[in-house]
C-alpha cells in the first residue's frame, strides 16, 4: 500500500508561478516609479531651483 508519486505537478505550476511573479513584480515596479520616485525627484528639483533663485537674489 504505497503512495503513487506525484509527477508533473511542478512543471504545470511553474509557468503560472513565473508569469504571475513577473507580472506582479513589473506592476509593483511601475507603481513605485511613477507613484513615489518621480514625485520625490520633482520635489527635490523644485527645492534646489528655489534655493538657486534665492542665492541669485542676494
UniProtKB/TrEMBL annotation:
Subcellular location: Mitochondrion inner membrane
Any single biological process term in GO: mitochondrial electron transport, cytochrome c to oxygen
Top-rank taxon: Eukaryota
Claim: Acetylation is one of the keywords in the record: no
Entry's Gene Ontology cellular component terms: mitochondrial inner membrane
Pathway annotation from the record: Energy metabolism; oxidative phosphorylation
A molecular-function term among this protein's GO annotations: cytochrome-c oxidase activity
CDD domains tied to this protein: CcO_VIIa_fungal
InterPro entries: Cyt_c_oxidase_su7a_fun, Cytochrome_c_oxidase_VIc/VIIs
Record's keyword annotation contains Cell cycle: no
Transmembrane segments: 14-36
Membrane topology: Single-pass membrane protein
Sorted UniProt keywords: Membrane, Mitochondrion, Mitochondrion inner membrane, Oxidoreductase, Transmembrane, Transmembrane helix
Record's function text: Component of the cytochrome c oxidase, the last enzyme in the mitochondrial electron transport chain which drives oxidative phosphorylation.
Family: Belongs to the fungal cytochrome c oxidase subunit 7a family.
UniProt name for this protein: Cytochrome c oxidase subunit 9, mitochondrial
Organism: Lentinus brumalis
Amino acid at each position: 500500500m504505497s503512495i503513487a508519486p506525484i509527477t508533473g505537478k511542478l512543471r504545470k505550476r511553474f509557468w503560472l508561478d513565473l508569469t504571475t511573479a513577473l507580472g506582479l513584480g513589473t506592476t509593483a515596479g511601475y507603481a513605485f516609479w511613477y507613484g513615489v520616485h518621480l514625485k520625490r525627484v520633482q520635489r527635490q528639483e523644485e527645492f534646489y531651483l528655489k534655493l538657486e533663485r534665492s542665492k541669485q537674489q542676494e
